Amino acid sequence: MSSFRSTLSRAALGALAGLLAGFTALAVAEPVAGLVRPAAGPVTVVGGAVIDRTPAPVKDFAIRTFGENDKTVLQLGILGVLVLIAGALGILALHHRRTGAAGVLLFGIIGTAAALSRPDSQGIGDALPSLAGAAAGALTLYILAGKAARPAPTSGGQAAGAWNRRGFLIAAVFTAAGAASAGVLGRRLAGRQGQGAVASRTALTLPAPASPAPPVPAGAQLEVPGVSPFTTPNPDFYRVDTALVVPKVNAGSWRLRIHGKGVGRPRTYTLQDLLGRPLIERDITLTCVSNEVGGPYIGNARWLGVPLGDLLREAGVRPPSTGGKADQLVARSVDGMTLGSPVEDVMDGRDAMLAVGMNGEPLPFDHGFPVRMLVPGLYGYVSACKWITDIELTTFDAYDPYWVKRKWARRAPVKTQSRIDTPKPFARPGPGTVTVAGVAWAQRRGITRVEVRIDDGPWQDADLAAQDTVDTWRQWTYRWNPTTGGHTITVRATDGTGAVQTEERTRTIPDGASGRHSVFVTVP
Ligand SMILES: Nc1nc2c(c(=O)[nH]1)N[C@H]1C(S)=C(S)[C@@H](COP(=O)(O)O)O[C@H]1N2
Ligand SMILES: [Mo]
To answer: Where does the secretion signal sit in this chain (predicted)?
Structure first.
């Protein structure tokens, strides 16, 4: 019994040694990443590598299940796995110090491989955080396992175990304290890297648009509680991207290069170059292809930016319809994301832009500061490159961007859709008339009609709010006098081409969900 207990407590010591070693590894890797590049930290690169390799259905599931917390869940998952492995290596190290320490080093190699495999890898420097962390972790484990395992000096019949337990404890406390301070230092350094970018955003004053957006029509915003506000405030605007660390780009050193097939005059622009040009201001509704029927990944904002078609024409680009050789525009971000849009769409006169402003302020970092691309009518993953730094003209045959490599469609215009915002699913609306309301969208085509159906009843016209533009969503409302009991409310929209939103349910992959949104409510 007592030998079982001592085995158990020694195993616990081993596991603790392993955890401290893991903690030390991360705490050393952090400041090194802070110095080299915050996005090269081991958890970030491993997380990014996992995202890159996650099959689309699983990624879809993660977005659906964890929503915008998907990245936090991923990072916690990685930390959880690390804790388990570190503990196991610690126990192993009690009897096999070298093997245990080598196991920690192996993680440095995994981290290095992940770092170098990332699309935004800046080369061998990105290996430093993982390697330095693993070396520190391995050394820590080697020392602590020695303290935990070494037999006590049995001079003069002293109680065995007293010396090595104290030695272990002292070493453990020093390790924990040292690792904690290294971790704090790491956060400081990583924070400092972003400070210049933050200052450059604060200092930025956006010029007035040469072509302002007319005020949003008074009737575009219904006075109905629970309906999505016509203009989505920036803090509420959905965020979908693969960045585990939001890129903090300094506006002063930011550059955009335009080059590739058919670009007669390749050029590199600074932010000042762009701000010196005539800017347009437009209301545009942005939608994510991963948005389920009834889902939240859609928002509408007033954007300020440089017309992209003009910029391309200046560079000598011609659309395919007038003989241009390039049919795909590939936008690349500072974090290595690639998105491909049809050149024809970008140059057909719609308000495709390089946006610098969102709802009256410089782009928030989360939404692509200093410059992002927008093409009305296309899902975000084929158009809305955030933190953009490079535009290459090429062909759909020659290059598949990030999501296309992962089985999403090459071309993805936004599908006509509608959503019930109120009442909420399973609500129990009070007595009397129920105001049903929501939004409908069909960017580039506009919404001309919205209908509501109760249970299997006839389709009834909803009242439409005023239309802002064909590129924005449109609110609608329906006054419903229900009978008591459970009811299913379903909505469908008709777009400017006269096409009625299809009933056919499809998944989000490969080119966006179709089908109709319904909500079940119980009227008491
Ligand atoms: N650099 C970069 N740009 C990106 C993405 C990304 O992962 N990285 N995601 C795209 C997708 S899928 C969408 S839907 C939109 C979302 O923009 P938002 O986060 O500003 O709403 O950005 C697009 N631009
Ligand atoms: Mo998206």
So the answer is: 1-27
